[in-house]
Specification:
The complex is a heterodimer of chains A (95) and B (211). By secondary structure, chain A is an alpha+beta fold. Chain A has helices at residues 14-18, 35-47, 60-67; strands at residues 2-5, 27-30, 51-55, 72-73, 75-77, 83-85, 93-94. The chains are: A alpha+beta (95), B alpha+beta (211).
Chain lengths: 95, 211
């Protein structure tokens, strides 16, 4: 299951929410029960960063997809291919 | 966490999920739970100890597990406790952490800041609290701290660097190094967890830590 958020100072329409995410936004694999994941999303939301959120706890196929990039969520795959794991002052969650 | 002060009354305990139901509801990692159930890391000596402890009048007869199916520490540790419950006849009930925040609040770690799982709570047959295990063994935490120190040194970071103080510029390399260092230790950490649970029960029940 994929959740795309385009967050900015401008209101987001439902049409925009239903669009396929543009390729220039980072993909972030998250677990909503993971404190480090939530801190990252809160930071990005506050900064108006657009991102494509993929929740690994909801689907084995998304979890398997995330594991191709790492083992510690949040996992961020940037448009240029860089991968980052974990966020903030806690380690994150092993998947 | 005595019955009188805990939200986990005997009635609440009985509302927890049986392991089979927890597994049936799991959205992810069923293969991992099955894998670790088939390889529970328990020795004959471990099983003999747990059976002896369970045979005491005040021994563990009920085990509460706080868990989520997406958590790596949970799918590595919970199947072992399932095996312990099966071997000793203890009643195991699983509570999903995010649906039971009041129970989780009784077992916070990291000075009350972390909701780390798994948590295993052991009770007597008449639901008196015995002891509990949180997330990982003390040995695993020590290894994690040592790994952080070692990687910090390799990256030229100052002594005493913690995960929280790693500069952003080197954080990706730091995390990669940390994962590479600790992942091979997970099998040993499972055994450490069993040793720690044995030690906790041995202390709480005032019995020797051998079978």
């Amino acid at each position: 299951m994929r959740f795309f958020r385009r967050l900015s100072i401008f209101p987001t329409t439902h049409k925009a929410m239903n669009q396929e995410p543009p390729k220039e936004v980072p993909v972030v694999y998250t677990i909503r029960g993971c404190d480090a994941c939530m801190k990252l999303l809160q930071k990005w939301d506050a900064e108006g960063v657009a991102y494509d959120e993929r929740r690994v706890e909801l689907s084995q196929s998304v979890l398997d997809e995330a594991r191709k990039y790492g083992s510690l969520v949040p996992i961020v795959v940037w448009p240029d291919g860089r991968v980052q794991q974990g966020f903030g002052d806690t380690l994150g969650c092993f998947i | 966490m005595l019955e009188a002060t805990s939200v986990v009354t005997t009635t609440r305990f009985e509302q927890g999920l049986r392991y089979a139901d927890f597994l049936a509801q799991a959205k992810v990692n069923r293969d991992k739970f099955d894998q670790f159930y088939k390889d529970p890391a328990l020795t004959e000596d471990d099983l003999a100890f747990f059976k002896r402890a369970a045979g005491l009048p005040n021994g563990p007869a009920r085990i509460l597990a706080l868990a989520e199916d997406w958590c790596g520490d949970v799918y590595r540790e919970l199947p072992t406790v399932v095996r312990i419950a099966e071997a000793t006849g203890a009643e195991l009930r699983v509570f999903r952490r995010d649906e039971n925040p009041d129970i989780m609040d009784e077992y916070l770690s990291n000075n009350g800041k972390s909701r780390a799982i798994p948590v295993f709570v052991f009770y007597t047959r008449d639901h008196r609290y015995i002891t509990h295990f949180l997330e990982r063994s003390a040995g695993a935490h020590r290894e994690l701290a040592a790994a952080i120190e070692e990687i910090s040194t390799k990256l030229g970071l100052p002594p005493g660097t913690t995960y929280a103080t790693v500069p952003d510029a080197v954080r990706p390399a730091f995390v990669q190094g940390l994962i590479a260092k600790i992942t091979p230790r997970f099998p040993a950490w499972r055994q450490e967890a069993i040793r720690e649970i044995r030690a906790l029960l041995s202390t709480a029940l005032h019995i020797p830590n051998y079978a």
